[in-house]
Amino acid sequence: MGRANGKRWVCFGQIAAGLWIALALCFHLHAENQQPVVDKLVLDDTIQPVSADELDRAIARANSDGAHVLLVQMDTPGGLVESMRAMVAAILASHVPVIVYVSPSGSRAGSAGFFILESADIAAMAPGTEAGAAHVVFELGKPDATEEEKVENDAEAFLRSYVTRRGRNTDAAVAAVKSSHSYTPEEALNQHLIDMIANNDAALLNSLDGREITRIDGSKMTLHLAGARIEVLRISLRDELLGWLVNPNIALLFLVGGALLIYLEFNSPGTIVPGALGTLMVLLAVFALNLLPIRYTAVLLLIAAIVLLLLEAKFGGHGALAIAGIVCLTFGMLTLVAAPVPEMGVSPLVAISISVAFGLITVVLVRLAVRARRRKARIGAEAMIGCEATAMESLTPQGHVLVEGEIWRAVASASVAAGSAVRVIGHDEMLLRVEPVAAVKTPGTAA
User: Fold this and answer.
1) Bridge partners, 99 (sequence order)
2) φ, ψ for residue 246 (rounded to 5)?
3) Which of 125, 129, 153, 284 has the greatest number of C-beta atoms within 10 Å?
4) Which comes out higher in pLDDT, residue 425 or 316?
């Protein structure tokens, strides 16, 4: 009886423990569901199509996941106007509030980055950062005064269109465009260009807890971010590769390297690997350069450089054409990308290194190929011309000779004794014409 009661109590204890664990899990899951979630995207590159795509994906995910806010940590010198406009439009259309935070210390929101900062529901900066210098930089050269004024007015109107609705200082914002004015965090806060200064993410979110914000459509919203869990959004492998490839220095390396590999394939057909790899590299380079503003005059310089290098290789000379080709190649590479900020341009060191290396390699390879094609293949009797032979029998005037380990029929211009040395001076089909070695004139021999 006592044993049965003991088993019953053990069973009750196990059931109670199971219920307790289940309740604890339920409370944990409930608390986790109640905890605010903040999606975080790190943008620390130039503003170009890849970064615009990253932001678009992050906003879409934050909206679909039900995140309370999207935190964009930004450090950028600026970039392309079209990409910036796309990013601003995505932020303004986002259902989830977007916080743009210039961080960490030493970061900046320059040029196009300033437009993005001002478009956010909450604009914040870390100590030791800067924002502004948003004067329009023309990607394809400076236009005339009228066109320049139109573009600047358009940029200012675009900035005013949402800065006013965000309740920020329109005049101070426009000054960043018109006068390239830059602001420290303290200046930006005093000028009502940003909403706060925060040392880190945690301090930023704690300061925003319970704060009421006005969305772009005029609706009010209170933020509840106490104890928020930050989920850092990882950049996809595709975007990482594109971000690396869209660097013009990398794109040019791919373009030049691919062109050389394709040339090697044409000179040694059938190897396949150089041709396939070269084609892939060229296609990737063209794809990357297609995402960037390209100057067509620079493309003409590159074409002229290739022509000059080929002429130098084919016709030879004193290197003048090669030098001209390398100079054209260097200037073409330096001016190929119409970069609105220096960080998007081609490095002078990279351009010079690629140009010199490509120029020299091209000249050497083409010269070798031209010489190989001009050199006629010599086989059979023709290959024996100039070789010394030994008369296997008296040549009166015909007989047999041993040349290069082979026995050939030969005819001599005069009688030759057996065992004498002769030299092949020509042939009539398969009959060699020979002459005694003593009869072959050498430089310095008297006639």
Assistant:
1) 71, 122
2) -75, -5
3) 125
4) 425
Cα–Cα distances in Å, from 434 out to 309, 359, 376, 395? 45, 47, 22, 10
Q: Which CATH superfamily hosts domain 380-439?
A: Nucleic acid-binding proteins (2.40.50.140)
Using alpha carbons, select from 157, 76, 156, 83 the residue that is nearest to residue 111.
76
Chain-centre distance of CA 188, in angstroms?
34
Strand segments, DSSP code E, in 307-364 are none
Q: Do the bridges between strand 130-132 and strand 229-232 make them parallel or antiparallel, or are there none, so unpaired?
A: unpaired
Burial grade of 129 (CB within 10 A; 0-12, 13-18, 19 or more): buried
pTM of the model: 0.71
The predicted-structure confidence for 83-106, as pLDDT tens digits, reads as follows 999 999 999 999 999 999 999 999
Residues with Cβ within 8 Å of 361's Cβ and at least 6 positions away in sequence, in order, are 260
Phi, psi of 392 (to 5 degrees): -80, -15
Cα 27 to chain centroid distance, Å, stands at: 49
Q: What is the pLDDT of residues 124-165, one digit of tens each?
A: 999 999 999 877 665 545 555 666 678 788 889 999 999 999
* Apex 366 CA angle, 318 and 295, nearest 5: 85
Could you tell me the two tokens for 109? 């929101």
327-347 pLDDT tens trace: 898 999 998 888 777 778 888
Residue 417 vs residues 392, 397, 400, 420, 437: alpha-carbon distances, Å: 9, 10, 11, 6, 12
Three-state secondary structure call for residue 103: coil
Strand partners of residue 110: 132
Class of domain 17-236: alpha beta
Q: Which residues pair with 428 in a beta bridge?
A: 431
Note whether 342 and 298 are within 8 A (CB).
no
What are the domain boundaries of the chain? Answer: 17-236, 247-374, 380-439
Cα 74 from Cα 43, distance rounded (Å): 5
- Burial-class residue 250 by CB neighbours within 10 Å (0-12, 13-18, 19+): middle
Task: Give 76's strand partners.
Answer: 109
Which CA distances in Å does 92 have to 56, 58, 111, 116, 171? 11, 14, 19, 10, 21
Is the Cβ–Cβ distance between 165 and 120 less than 8 Å? no
Q: d(Cα 406, Cα 411) in Å, to the nearest integer?
A: 16
**Would you say 402 and 432 are in contact if contact means Cβ atoms under 8 Å apart?**
no
**What is the Cα–Cα distance from 292 to 270, expressed in whole angstroms?**
35
Residue type, 248: P
Give Cβ neighbours of residue 175 (< 8 Å, ≥ 6 apart): 181
